Prior knowledge:
The protein is an alpha/beta fold.
Amino acid sequence: MTVRRGVGLTPMETRRDVIVRAAVLAEELGYESFAVPEGWGLDSTPVVTEIALRTTRIRLASGVLSVWGRTPATLAMTAATLHQICAGRYLLGLGASTKALVEGFHDTPFERPAARLRDVVTQVRALLAGEPAQLRRLPSAHPLRLGQPPTSEVPIWVAALGPRAIQVAAEVGDGWIPALMARDRLAAAAEQLDKTRATVAAHRTALTVATGPITVADENPDTARDIAATCTAWYLTAMGGVYARSVSDQGYAEEVNAIMAANPRPSPRRGIVPASAQPVLDQLAAYGTGDQVAEQLKAWDQAADVVTILLPPGLPWATIEATLVAAAPPAGLKD
């Protein structure tokens, strides 16, 4: 088995220069993919463009674009354009986002998110294949096609956690991006997705599973744990409840409750994962010295197709560099 690794960031990381620098280093270290997030800060698409112009090999992903923030037509134009700029290295990541972000930032009702996800992925795929726009609100208008050559080869990776959204990923996606999925639950979930996918006649290829742990390497293991714990606690206590529910549903409800109790006033700068919740941290994160991180990621290599490490926001460059070096794929390693 060839070891495949990717890099992802959180939407809270808004230092554009740092993101680009990390992507360039990731390519030098042999990572397969680099995912640029989008939430309520940076527009990811020009950042992807900037990285594309500074790299030549690494695959670049929008990780992920919200299906509420752009129309299917705009998403298709974006994907086709980035496909050109990236010389075929672009991956379109789409997700239903969260109620807090959709309603609190985009001023849009968060209704039937899985159905919205399916509808947008299907429309974008059709437009990229050269089909006319599917008009719903104004069916009497003349439907237009994308004014670029068909680019149906652009992979669409779907971010999904809930059962309905995961079903969408299995049926209409080319890849699955589950955030904060417990390592030991991942293989079984991926197997179930493949079974679901096998029943859909239009798909003959396996679904690419691209996910991984919150990852921090530091010469001081305690420092690395503190950073990983802060990021984990923030996601479980301050991101609208979606991640807390997901991790609880994976069998860690007691640990999630302990983390929430330990962080009554969540802070992105200091979070606590108490000893009683250590199993969750070990399932969602890889941390410690460089050697310890490299060893921990071996278990993830058995669970995901592309182990995509998640860098916490605001890390000093020295920590980013140490983490990327520690988690880089061993050159030419095969079973």
